[in-house]
Write a structure and sequence with these properties.
about 500 residues, Glutaconate Coenzyme A-transferase, alpha/beta, ten-stranded mixed beta sheet, 31 strands, homodimer
Chain lengths: ~500, ~500
């Protein structure tokens, strides 16, 4: 069958199950039943602190086929995923599903666990490095499931993904399981992705290298959600957890794109008091924030909130009074960590609150402007941030589809050509975000507006911005690079791309 | 049948269902399934703000027999319960269950709704005033269900009580349902009892008199849990919401009891660094806090936390460095409200985190010393704080049984005789808290230790405190007042007293 975007999908995928095809960004909505959580009640005098992973695994019932969850706030510094899976592998457990909110190069040891059958399934919103490469090569027994950040909360809440054990990398915890992300040598700030794990996993384990006297303060995940606490020497490498600083691009093309994007924002009429804004941590995205900052300051505009993964640039905007609040699901740099630990207006949000399509209203629903990246865009405005142009996995939606769906104005900023490859194509290798959610594509050579947004086309026509059709933009790129050769893919499905509502928006096939 | 305390219970109670008898404080524990929550997903552009109750009731499906929930942080200043039930009554809805965390004299209009069949069932952890009197007189169609604060969270989490609509009195809210309790003219501080309502009710309505621009900051209940926001002129009478100040007793007997209780605490060995403590807002209870404060200061003791409903006295102890943190489920006075809104070490806790026996470990489990009140105590140490000695309802457990069960040392402080009636009896009119959870009874004339606590008896014998058996204490009281006449009760059950685990610890019968 084909979904509404014309993507060929099987009815059933081994290891995944029946495929519910994507039918449009808000078609699968309405009344949704969440799963029933099962809790082992803890009575007074019971202790939760265990000496190490071995002692922990002695206490919990282990079996083949378990689902083990992790959150990724420690990013490429995370030790916890490897420690936990190694410990389970030593016990001879097989067929594990690793449900990590994201996977980084540091998780390379998973590749061996995939090869020897310890790990046979992976869920992630983003993956890069050796694991992503191995999945692309078909080294995982079953297809990986790529979801969105909000989609992961939905998966857990709905019970579509039932987690047996969640390991929560806890920068700070007390012996009764109260956790925060803002203190300790491995402080990462927000732990927004871990909240759903703590709510919905059968067994919740806090793994900490900063055990503090009861009670931890502040508390981001509360004791009533946590079964065990494991003390380890180190949960991560601080150098990999947060960047010292995130940097605005110095590339003149990136700066030009940012300037044009800011003009699009202004022309849209959304840059005004009470506005809300989100951007990523990439160099060009940050440059857009910088442009916006200058405009807001010049015009005396005070926005309501900025959201998302938070960088020092956004913190500066808060501190300069340009936004009243921040909603933070993940801190990207040290300044963000420091801010969330001291400024009450810098608020932590869970990934469900951030982007879940099936709760009572996520923060993305209140977003005015979202700045997005892209690896590929097609003439239907579908965006790929999941696979490289050679078909291998090198990323994933993260919050891409969530924010695109929620925001009033979703702007993709990208160079028209990267590494001699045009970014705009007839057909993206993989659809991460459907074109209906993408309003504008801004490149250094031209700007294309989604034809659905006739209002915006009118507004931009009144400016001197180089507005053209997406086909014109594609032709322009191809005139520079020649028409790119279609990549050749096998029939083997190595990953399923779930839209935020749990429907399948695409599948990823192994490159030939 | 009889439960383990010898209380006669029917197998089945009309309007309540099958009776599961109380079998001991921790007998009903282990693995517990929570209920599956059903959520109506909110998509972008949908609005939650409605003009008034009428507009709200136009939007939700109304039917006879609904369960409507309220929290009681506005206490005797609360307007929301009456507004909501009046609005439902105007629509001709009948047979409502009112699940209010507590009921106060201000809720007197409920009595008419009981009489005319609009309200036929009530759940509450505490009730006083006209509603309590009417329930005692059998004016409610079905027996009221009296539970504990932690038990209410358990009722909602387990699905034993399914709430159709929760009305959350919101001192501050934005139009998308983010709520806090610390700002606005009706600020009440913590809204810990409302958290379970927001998690588990089918429809969650924020009722606010302080609608702020999105997003509210701080946020105690998040937008992803809230369906509608109703703006009203006033949610409550500030004079009834918080006391200006709470007062230590000036009664010399109360002060003597407090002094003795403090000596019991010291003798127990629990008054030391890292200790935790909770007391109520009554005059004698506060006097105990005052005694403890002096001891801690003198001895340079720093405790870990104080918990519960929080008063200015406890705030002072935090500010003087005597405790590292506070866990606050409800603020009793203005100083507590100010503190929770400014001091990060003054932490809000949900009622589940506070006292739910069926989660992964409540704060009461970590309590060292708990100071409790009593209306009656029997020679098995069972305590009644639910009914007066004439058999009418005038209170309820609140957190009494939760904290008694969790704490290492539960001390009841009470005058030996009140209004010429002895407090210690052969048999309490109603069991609120089982004797197994009560360690010591301190009166001005003598101290009785639960025989289970042989360790404590030894420790107290080494002091000059007037330790005696509970029977001796009872005889002493009776020597002053004469043996009290047993009250005469009918066979009509007007209320069921649920222990925190959902078993039935007693029933309340209509006095003759």
């Amino acid at each position: 069958m084909k979904n509404i975007l014309g993507r060929e999908l099987p009815d059933y995928i081994e290891g995944y199950g029946e495929v519910q095809p994507f039918e449009g960004a808000f078609e699968n909505s309405g009344v949704k039943a969440q799963t029933a959580v099962v809790v082992k009640a803890v009575t007074p005098n019971e202790e939760k602190l265990v000496a190490d992973f071995d002692a922990l695994l002695d206490k919990v019932e282990l079996k083949d086929g378990m689902v083990i969850a992790f959150h990724h706030h420690l990013r490429n510094g995370d030790y916890v995923l490897n420690m936990a899976i190694d410990a389970l592998a030593k016990r001879g457990i097989k067929d594990l599903t690793v449900a990590a909110s994201s996977i980084f190069p540091i998780h390379a040891p998973l590749v061996d666990h995939m090869k020897n059958g310890v790990v046979t399934k992976i869920y992630a919103a983003y993956m890069s490095g050796p694991v992503a490469k191995a999945v692309s090569n078909g080294e995982l027994k079953y297809p990986a499931i790529m979801h969105t950040h909000g989609g992961r909360a939905r998966l857990l809440e709905s019970g579509d993904l039932h987690v047996d054990i969640a390991f929560i990398a806890a920068p700070t915890a007390d012996e009764y399981g109260n956790i925060n992300g803002v203190q300790g040598k491995s402080a990462c700030g927000s732990i927004g992705y871990a909240m759903a794990d703590a709510e919905y996993a059968d067994i919740v384990v806090a793994v900490t290298d900063n055990l503090v006297p009861y009670p931890a303060c502040p508390i981001h995940i509360t004791q009533d959600k946590v079964d065990y606490v494991v003390k380890v020497d180190s949960i991560g490498d601080p150098a990999g957890i947060v960047s010292g600083t995130t940097q605005i691009t110095k590339d003149p093309i990136g700066l030009k794109i940012a300037k044009m994007a800011s003009e699009v924002m202004v022309a849209s009429g959304l840059v005004k008091d009470g506005m809300s804004f989100q951007t990523g941590a990439g160099g060009t995205s940050l440059a857009v924030a910088d442009e916006l900052k200058h405009i807001m300051k010049e015009q005396g505009i005070v926005g309501s909130f900025a959201a998302g993964g938070i960088t020092g640039y956004i913190v500066d905007m808060l501190n300069e009074g340009l936004f009243n609040s921040l909603f933070d699901v993940q801190c990207f740099d040290l300044k963000a960590v420091q801010s969330i630990s001291t400024n009450p207006h810098h608020m932590l949000m869970s990934s469900s609150m951030y982007g879940n399509a099936h709760n009572k209203g996520a923060v993305v629903n209140k977003l005015d402007i979202m700045i997005l990246g892209a690896t590929e865009i097609d003439t239907d405005f579908n965006v790929n941030v999941t696979t490289a142009s050679d078909g291998t996995i090198m990323g994933g939606s993260g919050g891409h589809s969530d924010t695109a769906a929620g925001s009033k104005l979703a702007i993709v900023v990208t160079n028209l050509v990267k590494s001699r490859t045009p970014i705009i194509k007839d057909r993206v290798t993989t659809v991460t975000t459907p074109g209906e959610s993408v309003d504008v594509v801004v490149t250094e050579r031209g700007i294309a507006v989604n034809p659905r947004r006739t209002d915006l086309i009118e507004k931009l026509k009144a400016t001197r911005l180089p507005v053209m059709t997406i086909e014109e933009l594609k032709n322009l790129a191809e005139s520079m690079t020649g028409k790119p050769k279609a990549i050749e893919l096998s029939d083997e499905i190595v990953a399923v791309v779930e839209y935020r509502d749990g429907t399948v928006i695409d599948v990823i096939k192994k490159p030939l």
